[in-house]
Specification:
about 350 residues; alpha/beta; Rossmann fold; 2 domains; ATP-binding; DNA repair
């Protein structure tokens, strides 16, 4: 991509050429202050330059060199999947998470949603022949702090989880350097993150997976029951932004969601049925999701060596390409694995 493709004032273009900045993407890797020093342009000119460069990169997202080398660009189409890192779970999902569209993972607290999301952030960094995206991940936290200790444990245990990958390749990957953590305390900061920082990371090719944990937290805390119309409008804006990012950059988007109890008065009780839950945020959000998965924590316990884990079940609630099936799983030191029954 050359400078002639940018719609910029000739004066700005001339300053960029004098500074010997060779490519549009190179501009996005230089800080604003350094650009001012190199070009002699004003703050306003630098803002115009960065905006134009980011827009151009969004129109022409980078393709990993490995894909070009192996002639696998077509794999980034609708049939491409991001592996979960477990053969049984990948079998349930017909290869893993689809690259296009929004995938929702809902479940009660402690069901293993965040565990699976962290695992996907590591899986994304593997080359495509091992089910990865050959790129990093951006993880947006909206309620709890990022579980850095658990991530470090998962990184140490990767050779155990990914026995299909050569140990030399695993040791060469700097996993923690390629997970970009963002915190959004309210909807405004979330929208700024999704409209400014995340597109830059995607445009630079630094990430290829977007995780939001969780989508329900902010929408539940900022709106009362009477504000349902405004909440739905904000939900549509949020989901539209996610879909745009997914389509523009061929990026899988994973949204963690909470659940709400389904009430029933058939037995004369006004209380919730503990095993009967549904994903939060209602139909307004459900209609924006392409794949809906649910993680349930069961009453049984499974044991493996000196480790034990509550049994989980990953279920496909709906998806255009998947039947409604489920797979038992457990959370071990190395991550989430399917359990054969």
């Amino acid at each position: 991509m050359n400078w002639d493709q940018l719609e910029l004032d000739p004066r700005i273009l001339a300053a960029v050429r004098r500074a010997k900045l060779k490519s549009v993407r190179e501009v996005l890797c230089v800080s604003g202050l350094d650009l001012q020093r190199l070009t002699g342009l004003s703050c306003s000119d630098i803002r115009q330059l960065l905006t134009a460069a980011a827009t151009a990169c969004r129109r022409h997202p980078p393709i990993p060199a490995l894909l070009l080398h192996r002639g696998e660009c077509c794999r980034l189409g609708s049939g491409f999947r991001l592996s979960v890192g477990c053969p049984l779970l990948d079998k349930l999902l017909r290869g893993g998470l689809p690259v296009g569209g929004i995938t929702e993972l809902s479940g009660e607290s402690g069901s293993g949603k965040t565990q699976l999301a962290l695992q996907l952030c590591l899986c994304a960094q593997y080359p495509t022949q091992y089910g990865g995206l050959n790129s990093g991940a951006v993880y947006i936290c909206t309620e709890d702090s990022f579980p850095i200790r658990r991530l470090q444990q998962l990184i140490r245990e990767q050779p155990c989880l990914r026995s299909d990958v050569p140990p030399s390749l695993i040791s060469s990957l700097q996993f923690s350097d390629h997970i970009y953590i963002e915190h959004a305390a309210d909807l405004d900061s979330l929208q700024v993150c999704l409209s400014r920082r995340v597109p830059l990371l995607l445009a630079r090719g630094l990430v290829q997976l977007l995780v939001v944990d969780s989508v329900a937290a902010l929408f539940r805390s900022e709106f009362q029951a009477a504000d349902w119309l405004e909440r739905n409008k904000q939900l549509l804006t949020f989901s539209s932004t996610l879909r745009h990012l997914s389509q523009e950059f061929t990026t899988p988007v994973l949204c963690i969601n909470q659940v709400t109890n389904v009430f029933s008065g058939s037995d004369g009780s006004l209380g919730p049925l503990p095993s009967n839950v549904t994903p939060a945020l209602g139909l307004a959000w459900a209609n924006q999701v392409m794949v809906r998965l649910m993680m349930r924590r069961l009453q049984e316990t499974v044991v493996r060596g000196e480790q034990s884990s509550a049994l989980r079940r990953l279920e496909v609630v709906f998806a255009p390409h998947l039947p409604r099936e489920g797979q038992d799983a457990a959370v071990w030191r190395e991550g989430v694995r399917g359990v054969s029954t």
